[in-house]
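Example for tutorial group B:
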């Protein structure tokens, strides 16, 4: 019974095995005791009343035992109950189908007889399974001019009504048996319907655990099992994304690490072959090696931030930031880099102080990633514009360049980790982590970032952050 399927079937059948017999016994008792016997007693009462009225029209029947017996035997074929005539003094006058041992003429000791002799119609029911017991008894007094002159007594022995009892019991038993079979079959179908999606999910989990690529599980069945299948499908999709990310990471790492390491090895071999003795050449090689080491360091920083992002451990050192004082310090080194590349630089800041709450270093990192991309992909003689505005309790920072633009199809994908545009050379290099890290930082500050086409040429990256409403006494 360790199988869930069997337990589900048993959970449907077990209550039926307990409840249906109890219901059956109770129903049989009620039908026999409260329905059949009252109907039989009413029939006896009607028959006894007719016999009493007939005798009352011919009272000589009560004075002659032979005539009384003949009277009962005439009615015996039409009345299935046992008939008896009793005199006014309580003696047995006649009984239908009497045998030799019947005490004709002897006084009767019946508890109900005295009540009938006083003029009361007596009806008594006895629910008994004894074949000799009288389950229904009716005594109807025969009233004369001077009172009760006799009593008609009709009874139903159990042996007389046993066929009717058996019919009720067999009908109820058959009905309950059919109900048990139908209930068991319905329980089997329900258990099978529950077990089938569970079995699919279990097989899918086993395949996943064994390393086999699992297909999505059909999300059918009861609500809870549908939710289970949906959750499993989400897990499979998440694992697939992580696997794809791992493969992208490995391929990108090989590509990104191979190039600077190859350059470092070539420079080192050149120095070993004698270039170290030439000051100008060695300085150039060492400068190039330093540049490649910086590239490797930035790569490691990006991977560290990606690790924090995946683990959900991005920690923020929240402070009140005076944007007017903070933003120029962030823009200053990037402005110098743009001017070295002969890129026009334009900024438009606000005159009044504005404040946001957040981690100034993390926000500087996010803005720096956007500025780095703008400078990298904007050609000489191009331009970069930084505009700062406030509206609807939000700070909006727009960084627009005249470099390579972003197509509408790629405007959302460029923020995904490891994404590198296949046709757009703007995203064909690097690990594809910068914009993903930027979005993570901005969203951690309850803000948003998106890309849109520049009005003339290039792209605009728009950052929105919620403003701090209360002017602080101390701000960064």
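The residue assignment follows.
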């Amino acid at each position: 019974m360790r199988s869930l399927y069997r337990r589900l079937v048993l959970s449907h059948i077990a209550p039926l095995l307990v409840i249906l017999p109890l219901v059956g016994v109770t129903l049989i008792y009620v039908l026999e005791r409260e329905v059949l016997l009252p109907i039989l007693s009413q029939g006896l009462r009607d028959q006894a009343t007719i016999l009493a009225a007939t005798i009352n029209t011919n009272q000589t029947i009560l004075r002659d035992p032979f005539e009384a017996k003949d009277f009962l035997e005439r009615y015996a074929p039409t009345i299935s109950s046992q008939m008896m005539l009793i005199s006014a003094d309580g003696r047995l006058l006649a009984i239908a189908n009497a045998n030799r041992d019947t005490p004709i003429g002897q006084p009767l000791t019946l508890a109900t007889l005295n009540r009938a002799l006083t003029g009361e119609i007596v009806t008594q029911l006895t629910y008994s399974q004894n074949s000799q017991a009288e389950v229904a008894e009716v005594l109807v007094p025969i009233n004369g001019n001077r009172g009760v002159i006799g009593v008609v007594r009709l009874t139903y022995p159990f042996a007389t009504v046993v066929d009717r009892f058996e019919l009720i019991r067999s009908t109820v038993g058959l009905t309950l048996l059919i109900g048990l079979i139908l209930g068991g079959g319905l329980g089997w179908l329900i258990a099978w319907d529950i077990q089938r999606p569970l079995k699919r999910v279990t097989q899918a989990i086993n395949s996943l655990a064994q390393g086999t690529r699992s297909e999505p599980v059909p999300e059918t069945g009861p609500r809870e099992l549908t939710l289970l299948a949906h959750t499993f499908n989400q897990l499979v999709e998440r694992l697939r994304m992580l696997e794809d990310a791992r493969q992208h990471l490995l391929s990108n790492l090989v590509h990104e690490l191979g190039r600077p390491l190859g350059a470092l090895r070539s420079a080192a071999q050149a120095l070993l072959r004698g270039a170290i003795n030439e000051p100008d050449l060695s300085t150039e090689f060492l400068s190039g090696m330093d540049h490649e080491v910086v590239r490797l360091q930035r790569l490691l920083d990006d991977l560290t931030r990606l690790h924090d992002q995946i683990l959900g451990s991005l920690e923020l050192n929240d402070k009140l930031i005076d944007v007017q004082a903070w933003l120029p310090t962030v823009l200053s080194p990037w402005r110098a880099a743009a001017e070295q590349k002969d890129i026009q630089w334009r900024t438009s800041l606000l005159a009044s102080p504005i404040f946001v709450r957040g981690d100034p270093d993390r926000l500087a990192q996010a803005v720096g990633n956007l500025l780095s991309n703008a400078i990298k992909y904007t050609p000489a003689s191009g331009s970069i514009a930084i505009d700062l505005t406030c509206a609807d309790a939000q700070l909006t920072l727009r960084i627009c360049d005249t470099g390579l633009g972003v197509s509408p199809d790629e405007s959302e994908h460029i923020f995904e980790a490891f994404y590198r545009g296949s046709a757009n050379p703007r995203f064909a290099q690097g690990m594809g982590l910068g914009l993903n890290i930027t979005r993570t930082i901005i969203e951690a500050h309850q803000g948003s970032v998106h890309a849109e086409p520049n009005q003339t040429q290039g792209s605009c990256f728009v950052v929105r952050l919620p403003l701090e409403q209360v002017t602080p006494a101390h701000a960064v």
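The radius of gyration is 52 Å. Compare this with the pattern of hydrophobic and polar residues in the output above.
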